[in-house]
Design a protein that fits this description.
about 160 residues; mainly beta; nine-stranded mixed sheet; three-stranded antiparallel sheet; 1 helix
Length: about 160
C-alpha cells in the first residue's frame, strides 16, 4: 500500500506528497529485465539513497544533499569493480560525468537500483533528474521539470520509496 511520502509512477505522471508531476521515463519504456544500455526504466520498489547537487549553480536543497564537483563521475562499465557507483576522475573505466555543461544533473536523486551490490550488466545510474524538455525520454532515469524536481527534493527523505509498477 503506497504511503504519502512514496513516489509512485503512473502511466501519465508521478505522484508524491499529494501532488502529481509530469515526468519522462526511459526511451525503452518500463522493464522487469533491466540491462545496461537498454534505455529502459526498471520496474520495482526502489529507495532514494542519496541526493547530489551542483554547488556552483544552486544551494543545497536538503541537509543530506552532497555537493558534486568536476572530478565526480558515475561508473557505467560492467567490467569496473566500482560499477554503478560514484567514482572520481581520473577513472580508467567507462563512466558518466556528473558535473555536466547542461542543467540535467544540477540536482540528482539517487536510487538503489542495482546498488549497493551491483550485478554487472543489470543497469546503472537510475536517477531522478531534470528533463531535457517536456516528455523527452531518458536513458532509463525518471526526469522532471526543474521546479518540480526542486519541490520534490525539498520534501523527500532518504529511504523514501519509488514505486515503478
Amino acid at each position: 500500500m503506497p504511503h504519502t511520502d512514496d513516489l509512485v509512477l503512473t502511466p501519465t505522471h508521478l505522484r508524491f506528497a499529494g501532488r502529481r508531476f509530469a515526468c519522462s521515463i526511459g526511451r525503452g519504456g518500463l522493464t522487469s529485465d533491466k540491462r545496461e544500455g537498454d534505455g529502459a526504466t526498471p520496474r520495482g520498489l526502489h529507495r532514494i539513497v542519496g541526493m547530489l547537487y551542483r554547488p556552483d549553480r544552486l544551494l543545497p536543497p536538503a541537509p543530506w544533499a552532497r555537493a558534486i564537483g568536476p572530478a565526480d563521475l558515475w561508473s557505467d562499465d560492467p567490467d569496473d569493480p566500482a560499477y554503478n557507483r560514484l567514482v572520481r576522475a581520473p577513472h580508467g573505466f567507462s563512466h558518466e560525468r556528473l558535473r555536466r555543461a547542461d542543467p540535467l544533473y544540477d540536482l540528482v536523486l539517487l536510487t538503489d537500483w542495482n546498488w549497493p551490490d551491483a550485478r554487472p550488466g543489470k543497469g546503472s545510474a537510475i536517477f531522478l533528474h531534470q528533463w531535457r524538455r517536456p516528455r523527452y525520454p531518458t536513458a532509463g532515469c525518471i526526469a522532471f521539470r526543474r521546479r518540480d524536481l526542486h519541490w520534490i527534493a525539498g520534501r523527500i527523505r532518504p529511504g523514501s520509496r519509488l514505486i515503478v509498477p
